[in-house]
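Budget justification aside, the reviewers requested a transparent look at the raw inputs and outputs of the sequence design task funded under Objective 1. We therefore reproduce one unedited record. The lines immediately below are the structure tokens for a 278-residue chain.
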């Protein structure tokens, strides 16, 4: 009985591979057929598509734009730096000197936290700065991935053709283009669409229905063609926004925490008005 099953699988594979792919589009069509016939999972198929895409996508398409970068000024006091590190949830920060284009290097949160025994009176951020990697906007993601692997680096500063700072890109941003969204400490479990961080701050899954959002926050956000808060925000932005882009409406400040090329995944909500009901 098992031998018959094995032959059936072999026959299926032979049928799919009967015609050798002539180019990438043929190969993708073949893999699509394999996924539809359950020879590979949809997750594997999407990951393979991600591998193809990184050889074509330039860094500018996935970077966090400069206005949304969280930076630390080299002259900031010890307590202010620690507070910013904790509140942001990030592990690496560009260190600037007064102007956003004056990047001195990168601060790793672990370097700062390792040395908490040092008195804040003796604190000098210069002692913690690591060299920054600068890359052009046009660099392809597959090349950057190889450079990250070789240097064991996790962050790069992106510059435009005039050597001005455009934004930054991280190893996590790049890997998410291949395997999809990576859960981190800010993510919401599959059962939780809303997590409260503070009295006026929430992490929200973009799949939360607009009706449920309105009920939870006692408001009346309306879009007759949209069912989710993520879709509502895409319409408001008039595009799929990038990470850290913000939008304020009806007393709410929305910050995009995670998005891919097609949709928003996760949002931070900051309430900027008094609500009758929470």
């Amino acid at each position: 009985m098992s031998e018959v099953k094995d032959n059936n699988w072999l026959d299926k594979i032979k049928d799919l591979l009967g015609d050798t792919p002539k180019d990438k589009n043929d190969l993708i069509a073949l893999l699509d057929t394999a996924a539809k016939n359950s020879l590979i999972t949809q997750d594997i198929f999407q990951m393979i598509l991600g591998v193809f895409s990184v050889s074509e996508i330039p860094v500018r398409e996935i970077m966090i734009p400069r206005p949304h970068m969280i930076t630390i000024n080299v002259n900031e006091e010890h307590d202010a730096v620690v507070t910013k590190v904790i509140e942001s949830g990030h592990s690496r920060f560009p260190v600037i000197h007064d102007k956003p284009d004056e990047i001195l290097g990168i601060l790793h949160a672990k370097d700062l936290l390792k040395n908490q025994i040092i008195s804040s009176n003796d604190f000098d951020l210069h002692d913690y700065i690591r060299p920054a990697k600068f890359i052009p906007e046009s660099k392809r993601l597959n090349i950057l991935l190889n450079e990250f692997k070789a240097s064991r680096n996790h962050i790069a500063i992106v510059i435009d053709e005039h050597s001005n700072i455009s934004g930054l890109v991280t190893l996590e941003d790049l890997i998410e283009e291949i395997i999809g969204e990576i859960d981190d400490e800010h993510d919401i479990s599959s059962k939780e669409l809303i997590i409260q961080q503070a009295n006026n701050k929430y992490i929200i899954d973009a799949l939360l229905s607009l009706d449920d959002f309105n009920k939870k926050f006692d408001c009346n956000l309306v879009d007759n063609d949209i069912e989710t808060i993520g879709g509502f925000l895409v319409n408001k932005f008039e595009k799929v926004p990038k990470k850290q882009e913000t939008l304020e409406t009806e007393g709410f400040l929305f910050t995009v925490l995670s998005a891919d090329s097609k949709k928003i995944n996760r949002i931070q909500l900051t309430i900027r008005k008094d609500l009758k009901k929470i």
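The chain has three domains: 2-58, 60-179, 194-271. The CA atoms of residues 83 and 105 lie 19 Å apart. Computational costs for records of this kind are itemized in the attached budget.
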